[in-house]
Specification:
Elements lengths: L1 H9 L8 E5 L3 H11 L4 E5 L2 H11 L3 E5 L7 H9 L8 E6 L6 H8 L3 E4 L4 H19 L5 H23 L5 H16 L3 H8 L5 H19 L4 H13 L9 H4 L7 H18 L7 H9 L20 H16 L10 H9 L7 H12 L1
Parallel strand pairs: 1-2, 1-3, 3-4, 4-5
Helix pairs in contact: 3-4, 7-8, 8-10, 8-11, 9-10, 10-11, 10-15, 11-14, 11-15, 13-14, 14-15, 15-16
The structure holds fe (ii) ion (2 copies).
């Protein structure tokens, strides 16, 4: 039962979307906002402010978008009613207005709204504002986790800030810092906190961090199923954390592109492996096993991968497992332009990748998720 839940609920990158309440008297405005945010959050829209308040007290949404144009209660009274909700249950408040010289927005900001947006705003402005507020509250929520999961998450977030700087100015990322992230991560997995970590990552807006942390968590889990030593599991987890670091140098438009990539965009994307090798690994004390995961995670056993087209006998078991976990993680990640594939569907699709990935290790990984 517990193991089945691991795949169907916990491992999914999109289960448990943050709930957002939307109060706006105008139907076209509600439709626009639902369209803009619907793939990323669970939006519950209201025309009636009283109904919204009744729902809010029960549902405890993460955030509420309150427009100036609401009825029957005025936007100001609705705001005051939301502010009377106890702080630990009160949603983040974002206020919007289509009025040219709105007095509501400055007042709302002064009373405690976290953000205000004057209409018309673009989808990107809305998504950015909401994502950063939700991310702040997710990171604050990590304080409630146990010592090991909390350390793994917060230290890895710091590591990613350091790697982003390292890619732009060439600063070396010391391996000791990577180990300081991986040691609590592996301990947390040993203590059965895998789902806790995966859930704590949901709805966080730093995709590079989320993908890598999910991959590292699942690699540490898979490593125990493979019967690896503690040292090897640390290498696998470190490889998971660092494997896509080079993507921080790839243009966001390419990373988030909806639809097929052009030949040039593919080249840019594939460069993430070389960038990591040339910048992050230069003069670095990162051990060979981790380097191999970074440099070979897009190789495939039949030689069809990149950058070198290595074949099965040239690819070691740690890299083979890293390959499987990376593919699974990427498929089950939530992206702004598509919903996550379910864990079951991802595993099924991977069973058809005959010849490209290690089927024995895939079965092992499947067993650890499905029980
Ligand atoms: Fe990659
Ligand atoms: Fe990846």
């Amino acid at each position: 039962m517990r193991a089945t839940a691991l795949a169907s609920e916990g491992v999914s990158g999109s289960g448990g979307l943050s709930v957002i309440g939307l109060i706006d008297a105008r139907a076209p405005h509600r439709a626009n906002i639902k369209h803009a945010l619907g793939a990323l959050y669970d939006i519950v829209a209201f025309e009636d402010s009283n109904e919204a308040l009744t729902w809010m007290r029960k549902a405890e949404p993460a955030l509420v978008i309150l427009d100036e144009d609401v009825k029957p209660m005025s936007s100001q009274s609705t705001l005051e009613a939301i502010l009377r909700i106890p702080t630990d249950k009160r949603p983040i408040i974002v206020c919007t207005s289509a009025e040219a010289n709105s007095t509501f927005l400055p007042m709302a900001k002064q009373r405690g709204a976290s953000a205000t947006l004057a209409k018309p705003f673009t989808r990107v402005q809305l998504v950015d504002a909401i994502a950063s507020l939700i991310t702040d509250s997710i990171e604050k929520g990590w304080n409630k986790l146990g010592e090991q999961p909390r350390q793994a998450l917060t230290r890895t977030l710091d590591l990613f800030a350091g790697m982003a700087t390292g890619l732009s100015d060439g600063t070396r990322v010391p391996y000791a810092q990577v180990q300081e992230c991986c040691a609590p991560l592996v301990s947390a997995i040993d203590d059965g906190c895998c789902l806790e970590i995966l859930k704590a990552l949901r709805n966080h807006d730093n995709y590079s961090f989320v993908h890598s942390m999910r991959a590292a968590t699942l690699m540490a889990l898979a490593g125990s199923a493979m019967g690896l030593t503690q040292e090897e599991r640390l290498v696998l987890a470190a490889g998971g954390l660092m494997h896509d670091a080079g993507k921080m140098a790839v243009p966001v438009d390419v990373l988030n592109k909806v639809g097929p990539l052009t030949e040039h965009e593919w080249k840019l994307l594939r460069l993430h492996v070389d960038v990591a090798g040339q910048v992050l690994l230069r003069d670095s004390d990162i051990p060979k096993g981790v380097r191999m995961i970074i440099e070979q995670h897009h190789e495939r056993l039949d030689g069809s991968g990149y950058p070198k087209g290595l074949k099965s006998e040239e690819i070691n078991p740690l890299v083979r497992m890293a390959m499987i976990v990376d593919i699974f993680t990427a498929m089950t990640d939530r992206r702004p332009y598509r919903p996550a594939v379910t864990p079951e569907a991802a595993l099924k699709a991977m069973q058809d990748m005959t010849g490209k990935i290690d089927t024995g290790l895939l079965m092992l990984f499947r067993d650890v998720l499905l029980g």
